[in-house]
Write a structure and sequence with these properties.
Number of domains: 2
Structural class: alpha/beta
CATH superfamily of the largest domain: Amino acid/polyamine transporter I
Radius of gyration: 27 Å
Strand content: 5-15%
Number of strands: 10
CATH architecture of the largest domain: Up-down Bundle
Distance between the termini: 43 Å
């Protein structure tokens, strides 16, 4: 699909400005804490040669990983215009008959984003407010409580939606990037020698001189590119061109100048202590800078929260996550959704890690492990896209991904050294989410197999209906949901067996979500006339669409299906999962976990916005 053709995208300058707020919030605020972490890992007070080496490592990390890997290659691997780990997984696995290894990589990469989403708001807001310590130590005891209050407020306003606030994200982040670029430029003017760091030999020299210690420093260098995966994840909303334009013309120059300015300050003042980012600012401007930094980090946090909401919807509709309540908070912006369970889960996690670690410096040890793992898995999936989607020769695909893997593996290994310092948390959290996703998928498949075994023959049932068979036809329209995609679902058989009656107009409805972002309206519903008075309607949605069943059934009606949407009764199942006494299909903890999720998944009328007064739910025990 050509870039920018989907209806929900904006275009041109407006889209590029909007991308600054949504896409680059996390990446753009990384100068707040990155250099402090790098200098600390390097032992503090680096020499001029070492400072230039550190800057060179940061510069080339930004160029290789963001400018080349993501902007040039990864963003080319779009799934009908959409990006993100799950979209890439769906793209490559569909071309390789759903390879199990690819699915595992995609799912685990997606699961790790939740762990990253919990730490990002905490480290960002803490690092911004810690800037007041440059002015006075008197406010230091209040930094953590103020950060917790801001984070709490951020999550509490999510139910209201962010459509109005979102309109100012772009201009504020533009001001942020201009500010950090100007501050950095002043430092470069004072110490123009920092320009020589563009030579990659400076970075290689640092790695050579410091051996094992330089490997530890790479964990800090990696913080400069955390948030880079957002370029790909948000591609479907803005398109490639605005995201790339914002990066090359605004974000990259601003980041390079900021890091160069901080390096210049380290060279100029070898005994410097504290955060070099805020030390760059003239004394009278620190407080306004802290305010601007705090606003920028709130925007960065909002972007990662919104991204978690969107990821959850994709996972649900691809069949990897139980149904959760989702609310659309804007009638103009498709991406403005609210997922209560995810919001409160992330709130508790974010407040917990902020309180437990207490400072951005300590949190830096926990930050990066999840992101580095996700980036490594993305490169592995990218190789399959090169070979199976783009049809590249093996030599070209191996060379391109080999370069990226060399960088990714180095950062991944460096971040593993942080596991004891807190890096275990996002990895553990991601593993738990991965366990939930795979358990749900396995459980749903087991339920469908069990239901298929219990079903009466479709041919026998239809013959019975055609011949009368003691089945009375009563006025009205009934819609039965068919999970297994059959024209005669099990609950319809049970309904007839129990009531000996059938409505005059019966629609069996199969709702499916494809591994493409959007299904054309003309292909939304396919109607099959089974027998007199019985129609089977198959409705398809893309994995980023909000399912509107009423509109879809209206399309089916236009295709000849006799359904009265104003008077139809909707029938669905809500079974209770119990342990099979003969042949268990799910063992131990998986069955318990799946049973809990199955009982608490969002009900059909809530998920599909059906009229509650005309919805009937039938339950029974199903043995797994």
């Amino acid at each position: 699909m050509p870039d920018g053709t989907t209806a929900h995208r904006t275009s041109g300058t407006k889209a590029a400005l909007a991308a600054l707020g949504i896409v680059y919030g996390d990446l753009g605020t990384s100068p707040l804490y990155t250099y402090q972490a790098i200098v600390g890992a390097a032992g503090g007070h680096p020499s001029a040669a070492d400072a230039l080496g550190l800057l060179s490592l940061v510069v080339w990390t930004l160029i290789v990983t963001i400018s080349v890997k993501y902007c040039v290659f990864v963003m080319r691997a779009d799934n009908h215009g959409e990006g993100g780990t799950l979209a890439l997984m769906a793209l490559v696995s569909s071309r390789m008959n759903r390879s199990g290894l690819l699915i595992i990589m995609g799912l685990f990469g997606a699961a790790l984003i939740y762990g990253d989403g919990i730490i990002t708001p905490a480290i960002s807001v803490l690092s911004a407010l810690e800037g007041v310590n440059v002015v006075t130590d008197a406010l230091k005891p209040y930094v953590l409580p103020a950060s917790l209050a801001i984070l709490l407020g951020l999550f509490l306003v999510q139910p209201r939606g962010t459509a109005n606030i979102g309109r100012v994200f772009g201009p504020i982040m533009l001001l942020w990037f201009v500010t950090i670029a100007v501050l950095g430029l002043f430092g470069v003017i004072r110490q123009p020698i920092v320009v020589t760091a563009i030579n990659p030999l400076q970075g290689l020299g640092f790695l050579t001189r410091h051996g094992w210690q330089s490997f530890v420093v790479l964990g800090g260098v990696f913080l400069a590119i955390t948030g880079g995966e957002a370029l790909y994840a948000d591609m479907g909303h803005f398109g490639r061109t605005p995201i790339r334009s914002s990066w090359y013309w605004i974000v990259l120059p601003a980041l390079l100048l900021s890091y160069a300015g901080q390096t210049a300050l380290l060279i100029e003042t070898p005994s410097l202590t504290g955060n070099p980012f805020f030390k760059l600012a003239p004394s009278g401007t620190v407080i306004p800078l802290v305010v601007l930094a705090t606003v920028a980090t709130i925007i960065a946090s909002q972007a990662i929260i919104t991204g978690a909401f969107s990821l959850t919807r994709q996972a649900m509709q691809l069949g990897w996550f139980p149904g959760l309540m989702i609310r659309q908070t804007s009638d103009e912006e498709y991406g403005q959704i609210y997922v209560p369970f995810i919001n409160w889960m992330m709130m508790l996690g974010t407040l917990g890690v902020a309180a437990a670690f207490g400072s951005s410096d300590r949190l830096a040890g926990a930050y990066g492990t999840a992101v580095s793992t996700t980036m490594l898995l993305t490169t592995a999936l990218l190789y399959n896209a090169m070979r199976d989607v783009w049809r590249w020769p093996m030599a070209s695909a191996v060379f391109a991904t080999g370069v990226f893997l060399l960088v990714d593996i180095a950062f991944f290994a460096a971040n593993l050294l942080k596991v004891r310092e807190g890096g275990w948390f996002p990895l553990l959290f991601g593993a738990l989410v991965f366990m939930v996703m795979t358990t749900w998928h396995k459980g749903v498949a087991a339920v469908r197999r069990k239901q298929a075994e219990d079903d009466e023959s479709t041919a026998a049932f239809l013959a019975k209906v055609n011949q009368g068979g003691g089945i009375a036809r009563v006025p009205g329209t009934a819609v039965f949901f068919s999970r297994g995609g059959t024209a005669v679902p099990r609950q319809l058989l049970r309904h007839v067996a129990q009531f000996k009656a059938l409505h005059e107009s019966v629609v069996t409805l199969t709702v499916g979500f494809d591994e493409i972002p959007r299904v054309p309206v003309t292909e939304r519903a396919v109607t099959e006339h089974v027998i007199d008075g019985l129609w089977h309607v198959k409705v398809r949605f893309g994995f980023v669409e909000v399912p509107n069943l009423t509109l879809a059934l209206a399309h089916a009606r236009d295709q000849g299906c006799q359904i009265d949407l104003d008077d139809a009764l909707y029938f669905a199942e809500h079974d209770q999962v119990v342990r099979s006494k003969t042949r268990p299909r799910l063992w131990g903890w998986r069955r318990i976990l799946f049973g809990f999720m199955y009982r608490n998944a969002v009900r059909t009328p809530d998920r599909f916005d059906l009229p509650a007064d005309r919805f009937i739910e039938i339950s029974r025990q199903i043995e797994l």
